[in-house]
Design a protein that fits this description.
Blueprint (H helix, E strand, L loop, with lengths): L4 E2 L21 E4 L10 E4 L15 E4 L10 H5 L5 E3 L15 E3 L10 E5 L2 E2 L18 E8 L13 E7 L4 E9 L3 E12 L2 E12 L19 E13 L4 E14 L8 E14 L6 E20 L6 E21 L8 E21 L2 E23 L6 E14 L2 E7 L4 E7 L2 E16 L2 E12 L3 H5 L2 E3 L2 E4 L7 E14 L2 E13 L2 E7 L2 E6 L2 E15 L2 E15 L18 E9 L5 E10 L2 E2 L7 E2 L2 E13 L2 E8 L7 E4 L5 E3 L4 E9 L1
Parallel strand pairs: 7-10, 27-31
Antiparallel strand pairs: 1-4, 2-3, 4-9, 5-6, 7-8, 9-10, 11-12, 11-42, 12-13, 13-14, 14-15, 15-16, 16-17, 17-18, 18-19, 19-20, 20-21, 20-22, 21-24, 22-23, 24-25, 25-28, 26-27, 28-29, 29-32, 30-31, 32-33, 33-34, 34-35, 35-38, 36-37, 38-39, 39-42, 40-41
Length: about 675
């Protein structure tokens, strides 16, 4: 297993001679290899992008290289080891409602839409309609690493990186690998990857299937006759092709699909997500010459969900709403890195993204028959140009970078229609199209002397409201949250400074940050059981992030901690929120992990995670308690190609509150879950 490490070195490409076969070359991220004292670096390769630059090293950056700490593991749970990364709910993609899986950092919450820009090989991954992230979609891709850049960026990856950028990098499989595991509550998890040469190129196939009977979400002692286990079934399949297109050039194509079925533990609460993604790109990536990339992609999503109304006492349940959300994302990108001398310090380019989607809902049920139907949706477009310059080389102690981005955005004609089924129209609204300009940028510097590096950065970013925030009202129990077609973009100003120490077996990193998110979109309480999405004056967030790593013989000990002091600045209808901590944001969070880094027959890991108390609602009337959980696993390599693995999640069976209703009903995240399985690789 590759240990999770903070990237304190620059993201560079080795100066070794180029491989003769172009298709074998991939962008490379270098990190220290603690398993091999005789080897100072290992290479995590990524697909579909130009060679990494050093610009992001002026900010707090971490590389998650160990994405498979054991059979049955999940990507979203690997991210929880990095303190400060917050998903809207503490539950993972097996039990959380899909619309609650937004991700943010540095206390910049507000609702379930992501404030962090999540990309896969440079392609935005947020749902086109709602801005949440379908983590189960990555079952159909073989990931080689995740690069987390905290704080707003220069905009070279696109708009939306208010809290940071979480970059997922795929890797082409060479050979074959398969695993099969059985876990608690009738859970199964199977995955397989295979790849190799195909003419003058490569082909890779990746797939995964998982299912389980699930657990009862409602905490023991509050359950009624309607509560039962919440099963899940998920799977995905992907194919990727890469072909030589001449000297230092390649064509890459990707097609993947996934299906996700979940249940919320009562009748009428099942959800279904189907998705298909496709991309095509041309990459020209020579060393010391002009480089360029052209990319086009499409994302298709079809989401369905039922919502239930549970009676007091939880002894009866009825359907409350059925929702279907078809959505599409389209995009294109071109980037040019001209050769200046023998380097490529300048990046210039342009990108375009279009999202369309609508929600179709049946509600006001009489028994199991709906009485009303609603349809609401619209479209958004963003076209941007960007440029970034970096100065410095591997032998230079001083690196500085300056980047900027200018975007033109459009919101198309939105609409909301409500009618009695088989009868009269209740609401028929059209919302005028809007457009505007927004700018992003970053300036940063990094100074290095021997083992010590000092860095500082300042940045501006922005995020366009999602179609979900603009046009779709929703109801949870008795509480109604209205949409707001007049929402304006969120705008972030922020800065940070930090220090990194990298000396042999010891790594230390600390970052101080301060952010001001103007026009932050939140669900604001207007009256009992009546809320509306509104632009707050601001969310102000400051804090510190710390990580430490020490190699101890055949193992690596790593700890991370984040303190986040976030407060709402509000007036007018939202004045009651002024000075309060944003919903779903904890002040304290951290993890401690011990992982083996030897090539022996036995290996393992143990990870202790802590998340502090946080508010469920905007007024702070409902509080989710803190939680301390332990995950651990063991590996026994029987032969070079065969290993047996055992892994446990939440071994203390700690109650991890993930939600609390206005009636005080507490839902929990994953209880103790044990896995046993085998892995075969060639």
């Amino acid at each position: 297993m590759i240990p999770l490490l903070t990237v304190t070195a620059l993201l560079v490409l080795p100066a070794a001679a180029e491989a003769q076969d172009v298709v074998s070359e991939e962008p490379e991220i270098l990190i220290a290899d603690r398993r091999r004292p005789d080897r100072q670096e290992i290479v995590v390769t990524g697909s579909g992008a130009l060679r990494p630059t050093k610009s992001d090293s002026v900010q707090g950056v971490a590389l998650i290289g160990d994405l498979d700490p054991g059979v049955g593991a999940r990507i979203e749970n690997c991210l929880r080891d990095e303190a400060g990364i917050v998903q809207f709910r503490r539950s993972d993609g097996r039990s959380a409602h899909p619309t609650s899986q937004g991700v943010t950092l540095r206390g910049l919450g507000g609702n379930a839409s992501s404030r962090a820009l999540v990309t896969l090989d440079g392609i935005p991954q947020a749902d086109p309609f709602g801005g949440w992230v379908a983590w189960s979609a990555y079952d159909a891709i073989n990931l080689g690493g995740i690069l987390v850049t905290r704080g707003g960026g220069s905009g070279t990856d696109g708009p939306g990186a208010l809290a940071g950028t979480i970059g997922l990098f795929s890797t082409m499989t060479d050979g074959a690998e398969a695993s099969l595991a059985y876990g608690s509550r009738g859970s199964w998890d199977a995955s397989a990857s295979a790849g190799g040469r195909l003419g003058h190129g490569q082909v890779a196939l990746d797939g995964r299937y998982s299912r389980g009977d699930g657990f009862i979400p409602v905490s023991q002692g509050q359950r009624g006759l309607v509560d039962r286990a919440a099963p899940y079934e998920q799977g995905g399949l992907g194919v990727r092709l890469r072909f030589d297109a001449g000297v230092d050039s390649r064509i890459e194509a990707s097609l993947r699909g996934f299906a996700d079925r979940r249940d919320r533990g009562t009748d009428f609460s099942a959800s279904k997500t189907d998705g298909v993604d496709a991309s095509l790109r041309f990459v020209h990536d020579p060393v010391g010459a002009t480089q360029w990339l052209a990319l086009a992609y499409v994302q298709v999503r079809d989401f369905e969900s039922g919502f239930a109304s549970v009676a007091a006492g939880r002894n009866s349940v009825a359907p409350a709403l059925f929702q279907r959300v078809p959505a599409t994302g389209l995009g294109a990108r071109f980037e040019l890195r001209p050769a200046i001398g023998d380097a490529n310090p300048l990046r210039v380019g342009a990108d375009w993204r279009r999202t369309t989607g609508r929600t179709e809902e049946d509600f006001f049920f009489s028994g199991v028959t709906p009485g009303r139907h609603r349809i609401a949706g619209g479209s958004s477009d963003t076209v941007g140009v960007f440029a970034e310059w970096e100065s410095g080389d591997p032998g230079n102690s001083l690196l500085w970078t300056l980047g900027g981005r200018l975007d033109r955005w459009w919101l198309g004609d939105g609409y909301r229609l409500e009618r009695n089924i088989g009868g009269t129209t209740i609401t028929d609204l059209g919302f005028r199209a809007r457009q505007g300009w927004e700018g992003s940028g970053r300036v940063g510097v990094r100074w290095t002397s021997d083992a010590l590096s000092l860095r500082a950065a300042a940045y501006r970013g922005w995020r366009l409201p999602t179609l979900n925030e603009l046009y779709r009202p929703f109801r949870v129990g008795a509480a109604v949250t209205n949409a707001n077609e007049a929402l304006v973009p969120e705008r972030l100003w922020g800065g940070e400074m930090g220090a990194d120490w990298n000396s042999g077996d010891t790594k230390l990193s600390t970052t101080l940050f301060a952010n001001h998110l103007a026009n932050a979109i939140a669900n604001v309480t207007l009256a009992p059981n009546l809320n509306q999405r509104q632009n707050l004056d601001a969310i102000d967030s400051m804090g510190v992030e710390v990580s430490a790593e020490q190699r101890i013989g055949p193992a690596t000990l790593r700890a991370t901690y984040a303190f986040t002091d976030a407060k709402v600045d509000a007036s007018g209808a939202a004045v009651r929120l002024d000075g309060r901590r944003p919903a779903q944001i904890a002040k304290h969070g951290g993890s401690v992990s011990l992982r083996s880094n030897s090539d022996g027959r036995f290996g393992g890991f143990a990870t202790l995670r802590y998340v502090g108390k946080q508010n469920e609602d905007d007024l702070g009337l409902l509080v989710l308690d803190d939680a301390l959980t332990l995950d651990a696993g063991l590996t026994w390599r029987l032969a070079d190609a065969i290993s047996i693995e055992a892994r446990g999640e939440n071994l203390f069976d700690e109650l991890v509150p993930s939600a609390i209703s206005s009636a005080g009903i507490v839902e929990r995240a994953t209880p103790r879950t044990l896995w046993i399985g085998a892995r075969v690789s060639f």
